[in-house]
Specification:
Shape: extended
Order of helices and strands: HEEEHHHHHHHH
Structural class: mainly alpha
Strand order of the largest sheet: 1-2-3
Number of strands: 3
Strand content: under 5%
Radius of gyration: 26 Å
Number of helices: 9
């Protein structure tokens, strides 16, 4: 019987793949990004798309459409109380929701087709996260300057000027967030009536809660998290 000499056996140090010593964290510490203002035809096209998409979102609830004396005159309205969806000359009842489902399916398929054909056009131009981050960056550049100025300000000590710039920037961001939340609820009620109720304190509690939640999420996603939303939350 052959006896194996232990001195002739090569010993290799092994570590379990799930060991705490070698385990990689699932979340890396964020490295702050300072985007530089870009120029060129693609950037100009992106400005145009941003202006169109934001204009559609904020202004659509204020468009009027005459439907007669016994119907709302808001062009686009999701009337939950009466279970109606109004879109200009179209009126959709609950039993006709398959139209909306069909449109959503077509939009999803169209998104995949566009992505496979021209790349990530949705992510780069029309994704709400992209559009609102661009809007927040416009405010940031207007107040704090372009990339080098923002990096210098961020690395410098806290002074009265730095505090004033940061307060101004975040205050405008919060105003944008509040306008975003307000525009959203205007799609569910008559916009001129609801805006008066909001400022007089007579609106339903759910309206204030919705505006507060959307203000917080818009401010957080567009101003604070930015690219982290795409990295960790986008499918």
């Amino acid at each position: 019987m052959h006896v194996l000499d232990n001195t002739q056996v090569e010993r290799l140090e092994a570590e379990a793949v799930n060991s705490a010593k070698v385990r990689q964290p699932m979340y890396a510490a964020r490295k702050k990004i300072f985007p530089k203002r870009a120029t060129g035809s693609f950037r100009r096209f992106k400005w145009l798309v941003m202006a169109i998409t934001l204009g559609i979102y904020y202004l659509t609830p204020w468009l009027r459409w005459d439907r007669g004396p016994f119907a709302p005159d808001q062009a686009v309205l999701l009337d939950l109380a009466n279970r109606r969806f109004y879109f200009f000359f179209i009126e959709i009842w609950p039993q006709e929701f398959y139209y909306v489902a069909g449109l959503l399916i077509m939009a999803g398929v169209g998104l995949f087709l566009i992505t496979s054909t021209v790349g990530r056009a949705w992510c780069g131009y029309t994704c709400p996260q992209t559009v609102w981050v661009d809007l927040f960056l416009v405010v940031e550049r207007a107040i704090e300057g372009d990339r080098n100025a923002r990096m210098k300000l961020d690395a410098g000590p806290w002074t009265a000027r730095k505090l004033a710039l940061r307060i101004s920037k975040h205050a405008i961001w919060l105003v944008i967030g509040a306008a975003t939340g307000g525009a959203w609820i205007f799609y569910f009620a008559d916009a001129p009536t609801l805006v008066g109720e909001l400022f007089t304190g007579t609106a339903a509690p759910v309206a204030y809660i919705t505006v507060a939640v959307l203000t917080a999420t818009t401010y957080t996603f567009g101003g604070l998290m930015r690219e982290q939303v795409c990295t960790y939350m986008c499918p």
